[in-house]
Each structure stands twice: as structure tokens, then as C-alpha cells.
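Why run this: before we spend reagent on co-expression, it is cheaper to look at a predicted model of the complex and decide which construct boundaries make sense. The entries below are exactly what would go into the expression plan.
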Amino acid sequence: MSEQRGFIIPIGGAEEKLRDQAILRRFAKVAGGKHARIAVIPTASSLRETGRNYARIFEGDLGVREVQVLAYEARADAANDEWFSFLGKASAVFFTGGNQLRLATTIGGTRVTDLIRDRNRDDELHVAGTSAGASFLSEHMIAYGEDGGVPRADKVQLAPGMGLTQLAIIDQHFVQRDRLSRLLSAISYNPRLIGIGLDEDTAAFLDPNDCIEVVGSGAITVVDPSELEASTMDSAHRAAPVTVTNIRLHVLTEGATFDVRTRKAIPPPRR
Amino acid sequence: MSEQRGFIIPIGGAEEKLRDQAILRRFAKVAGGKHARIAVIPTASSLRETGRNYARIFEGDLGVREVQVLAYEARADAANDEWFSFLGKASAVFFTGGNQLRLATTIGGTRVTDLIRDRNRDDELHVAGTSAGASFLSEHMIAYGEDGGVPRADKVQLAPGMGLTQLAIIDQHFVQRDRLSRLLSAISYNPRLIGIGLDEDTAAFLDPNDCIEVVGSGAITVVDPSELEASTMDSAHRAAPVTVTNIRLHVLTEGATFDVRTRKAIPPPRR
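The model came back. C-alpha cells follow.
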């Protein structure tokens, strides 16, 4: 069991915060419930209250005893020893939404992300992120891109993310912003990774065995290129539509699971 | 020692093939000299003779006994069992130049790249690539970009590569095509990785301890962002110049070394 890592929990943004807090409640439960120690990192956001709002939900509504907001705003903030010490004993981290490039440029390559990656790998820390925070979790991150339309080589900008998993590229606000073609573009450069498109108020709870469970009111779209036969990504003009054949697609709703290693999707159990 | 991986050898393109074959000779030596078994993968190239030309150099000039050209041209070619079996007992692989996206779209995510990655990690296989082949070696690959000019968010297109190392982004034809600003752009998205810019006829022999030795007639430019203090990559308009401060730069010539883990550069020994 010690070979396992902690949970990785990307959320598609706009998760319900007032009425049915299903995703945040499940996250708090995974983190240890009342006894959880949650670090909220609001770096992606430009709004001062973002971190405090999540802290209020975790402490107030969900009864978590210890919550601290680590408001990294500049690279020099990585030197803050009090925050670093809290991260060293936290049971979970929550990254808010905003701009994923702000996360990468502010704490990428610092001891903060090193510690989060190491403790997650050693199964000491669960890590969730919503919207921009979700994109940042994996090795390959969609920095930005163009919504709608058809796949093209220049449709999406990839950048290195935090690197908790190398198996998937994560996209968010998925059906709300019509992002299938940008996720297909990202996946088609190299059909080694799967694509996970998260609708708003929907989360992928990626467990220590690389199995995803869907939680929330929307769906997760899984784009699996492992049987891809043909792709013109290398030959088409960068601004021209790209052909890709034999992509396998799953749309999964609450309770459904997807095993990233075996690439097998299982529908929700009958109630 | 069994924890170590094999050599990873990116070459900046246009390596000397006729007179002083220093880089190819050194590669053949690392691969086992006469007793080497070298697989040449010419997939990046659109020219039929590319693979055969390298085979002729390795067999003819350099005296390697077993060389085979594995001409993967479509994804279905990954099913070729004879080629796969040769890869399973090869001591080294050589990727030719051409178009790195052709490599990624043709053999990315197939059993071919899985086997190469696994055997390199287990120290059973050394892997070299020139030009496009060099770009493909690492986890984060520059797919294409714009030469010259200043760093910008939209200057360079990253894609997942073969993933032999996650420590560096590799660029090639470096001073010949004025690529510092595109490498700086690639590194500035997330200052977790270092940038390695390879001049033509110049190679980085990355040993099992993540230490680079420079071989060849040009130089290697190492871009180390680990002390980066400020970056406007997240806030600047995508087509506008980006500010990055406190990048550390090394220009290293033959015999110089760079330790990727400690980030320490050592000049060539005095002769």
C-alpha cells in the first residue's frame, strides 16, 4: 500500500457552493473529514476573497477543523516558512480557479510544488483543483486555447503543469464552453495520453489505483486515443482542420468509473 | 546501479557524417562499439534514404555489426513483430531528423515507444536523436515555433514527447536559427524544467546520473530558471513581449559538463 499515491481530484469549475455541495463535501471527506488539515491555494485567482470563501465553506459548512489559506502571490512567497510548514502536515490541498499560467509562473519549480508532488506521491496528501486549478494538476497542462470549431494544430497551447500524473490532459468548463475540439487537438499531438473533459460542477476523483469516479451534476468526457489509426496532425497546415480516426469516447455521469490503466469505463450502478 | 537508466543523447542536427564523425562515433561507442545493436528509426523524415544513410555510417565507417532500419510510416506498423523483437534486444536507438510531430503522431502511445521508454529506464537501451529526433526524446517537446525575436506566450507550441526525461526541454539548430527566445518562452510557462539549446553538430550526452557532457563542434546553451524571480508570462497579452528576470545561462563547449540535478556547470578540462 505504501507504493500508492494520494487522490488527485480535478473539478470542472463552478462547483455548487451553497446548496448541494456534493463535490466539496466528498473532497473534505477524502481529506479526513473533521480531522482534515486543508491548505487552500488561491494563487490562480486575482480576487482577494477567493481563498477565504473556500476556507469558510470547509470550516463552516463542512466542519473541517484546520484550514489555512496560502496566498502565494509572487515567487518570493515560496520562502514563507509558516505556510511551508503547514503544507508539510496538511492532509489535502485545494487549488482555486483563475488563470493556470499564473499558478505555473508563480509556484512552478519552487519548493512548494516539489513538496506537494512528493507528498502526493507518498500517499500523504490529496490534491484537488477546480477550473484553472484542475488544469494545473497534471504533467501536461492546457495553458489556453480556442473554444468551439474543429481540431487544429494551433488550437491549444500546452505547458508543463504540476506533474501529479502523466497519464491525462485535463480540460474544464467542458460542454459549457464547447471544448471537445481543443481537447482532441491536445491529445492528437501524441496519442500517449488520455483526455479528460470536465463539465462544470463535476469532478473526477482519481484514486491511488488510477481509477476515476465521477461526482457531480454534469458529466466527464473521456477521450481515449489508444486505438487511433490515422492523424494528419503532423502534415496539415497549422491553421487547417486535422483528421483523426478511431478515437474512443466515453461520457460518464455521477457514479460511473473509468480505469485509466485498462481504459475501461463502467456505467453507474443501477439504483 | 540497477536503479540507473541508459544514456539519453540529443543532437542539434547536421552532425558531421563524412570527415570528423565525433558525435556518431561516440554514440556507437556508448552503444557497445562493434558489439552494438543499433535500431535506426527514420520516421521523422520524409526521405526514403535517410535511414539507410545512417545504417551505412554505423555499419561501414564505425564497424557496428548489427544495424537495422525500422521504418515506421503508419501507426499500424507498430504491429510489426520482427522490428519489435529487434528493439527488444537492441543496445541503442537512433532517431533521425525531420518533423517531430510525425514521430509523435506515428509511434506516440504505441508499444514501440513504451518499449523504448521501459528499456531506457531499466538501463538496457541508450537512445539518441538528432534535430527532430532530439526534440522528441523528452516529456515536453517543442512541436514547432517562431525563430528570432523576443519571448511571447504564443511563440512556441509544446506537445507531449516520448518522455525519457522530465527534467528538460530540448531545442536544436540553436544558434543557427536564433532560437533563444523560443526556448525562453517554453521554459517560462513553468520554471520547473531547464532548457537545453543544441547547436548543429553538437550533442548532449546525458548520462545515467543526469549529468551532461558536451560533444561536437558547436555549443550547448543551458537555460536554468530555478532562480527566476519575476515573469509576466501569465499576464502579458499572448502576442506581446514577456518579461522574465534572473534566468541563469550557460554556454558550454566540447568537454564541458552540466549536472542537471545540482544545476552546476563545469568548463572543459585544460589540455
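The first strand of chain A starts at residue 8 and ends at 11. The first helix of chain A runs from residue 22 to 30. Bring this page to Monday's planning discussion.
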